[in-house]
DNA sequence: TCAGTAGTAGTAATTATTACTATTTTGAAA
DNA sequence: TTTCAAAATAGTAATAATTACTACTACTGA
């Protein structure tokens, strides 16, 4: 049930937000239960925990490899499909080639289409 | 003073660790002062706040563009010099090209030289 | 010298998260 | 179906990281 909720929420919610949605269908679910299940789901790799701002863990039901873009103006978070994967990039970096890369976490910061001019 | 301490610590310390070092030279500095100055320094962009594990903010005195590698076995954090910059990579990604990228944050997870075989 | 500002120590408060405990639910064997 | 142990839960207490508050000190410049 909680897994379904996280999967249906596309806005990278935190535990509190998931709890609010969960209460709509399970009116007396407790926050502790939400936390516990989120942790279990994360351990089973069915959801991802992500850290953007300090002290706030967010959850992401999309487990396929993807990146994020955070608009520094409106604070919205966008999902980005990686085109040439960072693993390829890693393979061209001598420092990284000596290590075994299993996964990576990449977040861009900048201005989204609505908030800023198109420019790199 | 706190800026010097953060710059001298290469291990991405958290506030508590910085506090411990600060007390060596300023025995009655308070933890609140350390937190306040770290926040000020971060606002002035003289240090960077980084989030690896949930609920723990670490600080980095190296403000030049660089990436991190975290060994999933020994949990050590390594600094990585970006070779082809991710900005270049971003420019090849149509999704990202429509946005204004100001900065990025990239962390690799995997096994370091001591903990795992060399393999990509 | 003195008033005002800024910075600090020390403590209290807040926030996100985890732990605990008594109770409820579940599910499989009898 | 009944029974009973194991697992999950609600509700609350506890913890950890961080921030806010307050009274006090130090520094500043006129």
What are its keywords?
5 strands, 24% strand, 3-stranded mixed beta sheet, alpha+beta, homodimer, two-stranded antiparallel ribbon, DNA-binding, 120 residues, globular
Question: Any overview of this molecule?
Answer:
The structure is a homodimer. Chain A has about 120 residues and is an alpha+beta fold. Helix content of chain A is about 35%, strand content about 25%. In chain A, the strands form 2 sheets. A 3-stranded mixed beta sheet of chain A has the order 4-3-5. A two-stranded antiparallel sheet of chain A has the order 1-2. In chain A, a hairpin with a 5-residue loop joins strand 3 (about 65-70) and strand 4 (about 75-80). In chain A, helix 2 crosses helix 3. The radius of gyration of chain A is 17 Å and the shape is globular. The N and C termini of chain A lie far apart (about 40 Å). The relative contact order of chain A is 0.14. Strand 5 of chain A pairs antiparallel with strand 5 of chain B, so a sheet runs across the interface. The structure holds a DNA duplex (30 and 30 nucleotides).
